[in-house]
Design goal:
- The protein is α+β, with helices and mostly antiparallel strands.
- Helix content is 24%, strand content 25%.
- The strands form 7 sheets. It has an 8-stranded parallel sheet. Strands 3, 4, 7, 8, 9 and 10 form a 6-stranded antiparallel sheet that branches. Strands 23-24-25-30-27-28 form a 6-stranded antiparallel sheet.
- Strand 16 and strand 17 form a beta hairpin.
- One of its GO terms (molecular function) is cyclomaltodextrinase activity.
Amino acid sequence: MLLEAVYHRPRLNWSYAYDYETIHLRLRAKKGDLTEVFAWAGDKYAWDTTKELIPMKLFTSDAMFDYWECESVPLYRRLKYGFLLQKGHERIWMTESDFQTERPANPNRLFEFPYINRGDVFTPPAWVKDAVFYQIFPERFANGDASLNPDNVQPWGGTPTPENFFGGDLQGVIDHLDHLTELGINGIYFTPIFAGTTNHKYDTEDYMKVDPHFGDVETLKKLVDACHERGIRVLLDAVFNHSGRTFAPFLDVLEHGENSRYKDWFHVREFPLQVVDNIPNYDAFSFEPHMPKLNTENPEVKEYLLKVAEYWIKEVGIDGWRLDVANEVDHGFWREFRKVVKSANPEAYILGEIWHESAPWLEGDKFDAVMNYPFTDAVLDFFVNSSLDAEGFANAIGKQLSRYPLQASEVAFNLLDSHDTPRLLTLAGGDKKKFKQAVLFQFTFMGTPCIYYGDEFGMDGENDPGCRKCMEWDPEKQDHDLFSFYRKLIEIRGNHPALRSGSFTFLEAGRDGSKLAFERSLGDEVIIVLMNTEETAQTFRLDVEERDWQDLFTGDSLRAERGKLTIKLPAYGYTAVKAIL
């Protein structure tokens, strides 16, 4: 037993309240090392009458470690606990301070979960688990009101550049809501809609004003109301890490320097403000002079931005915020942001843009979720780039699941491309077989999937600005097969709670393998998804209960014989089957 690999600590993703009654415990060990693990748990004030051994299950693995998990529903909402580790006949007890060969005589040196305080329980909005998001870049989605066009507007469908405009606006979105409803969308994430000088609007000029090229507050209200009537939630983009160069307080600093009352709204290293060798002498997003970083520890800045966050929820009824460059803003600001937003709408979804491991932001006091780029990387590396085999992919997904409490994984924002990346079809080299398998995993995995506008019609595009093309509305140029594929996936996901809220387990993901199978289950509902990423046909033989199964794509019936479900898939084939009770 390699005790050096065994790890647990209270809180974070290792010991946390899943809800107001339930505590989840996790323990890490060397991969394949332990045969059984138990949590030894009870109430610290009534140990002798409440102590019990709770079996832990192997809930996920990565390349180096196994992760064991159990849940406890303590009678008095508090828990003392240790662990019993077994490897064959070898037994070791783990306390907070050491490992012992004998059962500890008393619980004094065990770990402790002091109390499930309701205010500490991380409770993301439940509706997100049922959501399918659609990301819209407003300037490129649809031109619905030509009277709002910029002076230099170009014909729709031209070649995008970092500077040009095509006239997309909010009325254009309203005009095409039928398309989103037909597809099955019930959530929209908009990149910024507030006043700015660029086509992307990440250089905010006025946080309290809809960009005049997009419309006005009345148009936004009309859009949000129309979405809500269709059961579509609306997420707006907040750029609170930095403003734009034309933001009035920054213009004042540019003009008055050290004498500006707004000088402490920004991080200025010296006056006057200037750019030398392409690097400004004030902090900015990257080194972009037109995106000066805001000082969110400044009380006036904090008050202003928190009013912005509250205003748009109350004024137009938006359902949450996506937060740009979220990991570069101080944690104290985000804690206050959460309190303000959740007071305005307890069901609001708070989504942070973070491209890496994000546990410090997912403890229940800041964000509900982050844009799950580690998921994106793993899916692309396996299905598209072929740089991971099935085992490597399972390890990458396992590592990701181990990092966060379950409720964070259940509402993770799972994307495959965005306005910041090449489009999925381009990454796949135009190969629709690879494209479909990546999307199938996205829609059958834990978390909420997001479609980047136009992917459902087979739009392609390299990195920015190529990924920001005008939406293709010409039916002759749309890929209707992909549209039908997405619609079917959304239908399947919507009809089966196990795909939205169920547990996740890999059934087959071997080394050097190209066969992938995994199970989603919730109560009596069991669904198995199978994918063959090989250029030749392959046969799956899975250990299952001996019962009938139904193909969710074709409706065909299958029968498990002698505890084996045998399914042959063609090259790059896929299916999902449901157990029939």
